[in-house]
Amino acid sequence: MSQRWLQAPEAVVMIRPHHFRPNAQTAKDNAFQSEAIDGEAQVSQRAYNEITDAVAVLRQHGVSVHLFEDLGSDTPDSVFPNNWFSTHGGGHVALHAMFAENRRKERRHDVIDFLKMRFRVQDVIDYSGLEQDGLFLEGTGAMTIDHLERVVYAARSNRTSEVLLERFCTHFNYEPMVFDAITIDGAPIYHTNVLMCIASDFALIGADMIPDRARRAEVVDRLATGGRDVIVLTPDQIGHFAGNAIELRGRGGRLLAMSERAVEALTQDQRDRIEKHVTLVPLRMPTIELAGGSVRCTIAGIHLSPRPEEVAA
C-alpha cells in the first residue's frame, strides 16, 4: 500500500438504521444535538433514506462500502459505527469503551467477524471492559488520527479518558496530542471529529475553539507537518459540521465526503484549497445531523489490507 494512501481508506463500514432518533442519553454533553420535530417513524425513515442515498453516492465514486443493517430498537445511534470500533495499519482492530449505556449495545460480533474474513486482522484489542471503571474512548469520534505522522489528536471530554488514550497510543504506536476545545457557550467539544478532519495533504480545524493560544499554535503547527495545508474553520462552520468530514479513496482518486450543509458553510477560498487535493463529495444528512454528528461519524474507515481473494475479486 502506498504511504500516501494510508490516510484515505478505499473501504468503509456503514450501518443503515431502522430506529434512528436523537439519543436522550447523549444529549447532556453533545451541544451539537437537536430535538426532532416530527414523529419518530418519520425521523427514522428519513435517516434510513439518507444512509441509503449516501452509500449509493459513495459507491458511484468507487468507494467500497460494506453496509450492515441495524434492526435493534434500542440503539438510536447505531448509524455512527466509528465510535465503537476502529481499524489500524498492520492488521489491528480496537473495540472502544462507550460513555452512554445504550451505545454499548451497538458493538456487533458480525461486523468484526466480517473484517476478519475479508481483511487481514492480526489482533483485536478490546477496551470495552473499562467502561465499568468509568474510562471511555469513543473511537474515531474521540480521536482524530493522523495515520501518516502517527499522531492522535483528542479534545478532552466525558467521552475521552486521557488514561485510556495513553494506553491506546501505547498499544497502537501513536503519539497523543490532547487539548481542551469548547463551543461558543463554553461547553467542551464532545468529540474531536466535529472539530477537525485530517486528510493526506490538508487538514480542517476549528482552531479558535481551542482556548489556550499556545496549545492552539502547537496543534496547528503539528498538523502542518509534512507540508499539509491547514484550513481554519470558524465556530459557525464547525456548528454546520464542516469539520466532520473524511477523506476516502475512490475510483478516480481521493475524495472528501462531507454533508451538504457543511459544504454550503465553506467559503469559496476554502473550497478551492480543498479541491486542489480531492474531489469534494456532498452527502445529504439533515436528519442524521439532529443526533449531533454528520458524515464522518457515519463512516468507519477500514485501514486493513484485503485478503488475496478480495484483491483478485
Automatic annotation (TrEMBL):
Gene3D superfamilies on file = L-arginine/glycine Amidinotransferase, Chain A
Q: Which domain of life is it from?
A: Bacteria
> Which Pfam family, any one of them, does this sequence belong to?
DDAH_eukar
Q: What is this protein called?
A: Amidinotransferase
Species source reads: Pelagimonas phthalicica
